[in-house]
Design the sequence.
């Protein structure tokens, strides 16, 4: 009997990373800006996406959304009211979306071609941990945090906030009643991801939405320049 | 809790790799896991015993090496190791750092196998 060490140096998520690289190339070829929205359950991803889809459509942008949940198509039905094509992905117990699920749901999505879209939004499963490991080929990863969750969320979940390209604070209309410490929240986000763009929004009052839409347009223009 | 899917992926990769060594027994699987990889070692170990049962990895040991986060600090012109995950600032000069050089790794570094020597 001899003992042998076999060097592998293989990425455990290599299959996902390769699929994500393929998706990224197809998004880029199609000129569509893809955003991956990640937060805890209850942060208000769906409400934020509802107003985003509605406002973008009102400005003539071509938008679509994929929405992940363990079960139900409730979110897809809510979002479809905006008039945008929406497809639900049910993961049946899996705590995150992966590149394979995205690829499968983009293939054969009747009436939706990447080349005919300006923006594709992916609403991830409500979870602040697992989605951060899975690249979906997105151009922008957005971490969302509501004023009701506590200012230390970024410190508790640094892996997600550190991998995000933009941060969105939701439900700022509730900041007063919740005793939300805005300065502290901004400070904590910046400690984990220095220099990140932060949007302070309310889907109810539309606060911060104009600024968010301007950012989207600017990011899309930069990428397609 | 996606540790189970991570272990399943390890089982696939290792099973594929040991196929090149007929009759070999997997003794140890060594991982390199960055501190920002969103993976908990205890959960990995817990899932490992269950998910390797009935596979060529059954009975093997999982060794997890955690890699600290390393950032590149512009003002110091150096790669610096962070002490924790609560502040992404250079521990030397205190400036914020956004250029990550290590910390997201999630890979199988190597496997140790026992090979049956062929009779001469």
Sequence:
């Amino acid at each position: 009997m001899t003992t042998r060490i076999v060097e592998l140096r293989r990425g455990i998520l290599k299959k996902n990373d390769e699929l994500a690289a393929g998706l990224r190339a197809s998004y880029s070829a199609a000129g569509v800006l893809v955003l991956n929205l990640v937060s805890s359950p209850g942060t208000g991803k769906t409400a934020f996406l509802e107003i985003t889809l509605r406002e973008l459509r009102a400005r003539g942008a071509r938008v679509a959304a994929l929405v992940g949940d363990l079960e139900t198509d409730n979110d897809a039905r809510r979002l479809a009211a905006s008039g945008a094509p929406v497809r639900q992905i049910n993961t049946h117990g899996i705590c995150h979306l992966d590149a394979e699920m995205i690829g499968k749901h983009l293939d054969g999505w009747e009436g939706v071609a990447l080349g005919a879209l300006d923006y594709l939004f992916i609403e991830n499963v409500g979870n602040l941990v697992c989605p951060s490991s899975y690249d979906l080929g997105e151009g922008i990863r957005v971490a969302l945090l509501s004023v009701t969750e506590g200012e230390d969320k970024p410190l508790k979940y640094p892996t997600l906030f550190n991998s995000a390209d933009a941060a969105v604070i939701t439900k700022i209309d509730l900041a007063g009643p919740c005793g939300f410490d805005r300065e502290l929240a901004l400070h904590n986000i910046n400690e984990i991801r220095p220099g990140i763009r932060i949007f302070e929004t309310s889907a109810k009052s539309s606060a911060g939405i104009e600024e968010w839409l301007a950012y989207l347009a600017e990011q899309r223009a930069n990428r397609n320049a | 809790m996606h540790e189970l899917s991570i272990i399943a992926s390890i089982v696939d990769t290792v099973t594929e790799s040991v196929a090149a060594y007929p009759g070999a027994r997997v003794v140890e699987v060594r991982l390199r896991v960055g501190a920002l990889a969103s993976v908990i070692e205890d959960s990995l170990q817990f899932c490992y015993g269950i998910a390797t049962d009935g596979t060529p990895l059954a009975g093997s040991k999982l060794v997890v090496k955690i890699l600290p986060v390393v950032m590149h600090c512009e003002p110091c012109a150096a790669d610096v190791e962070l002490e924790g995950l609560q502040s992404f600032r250079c521990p030397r000069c205190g400036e914020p750092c956004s250029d990550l050089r290590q910390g997201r790794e999630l890979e199988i570094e190597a496997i140790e196998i026992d090979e049956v020597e062929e009779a001469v």
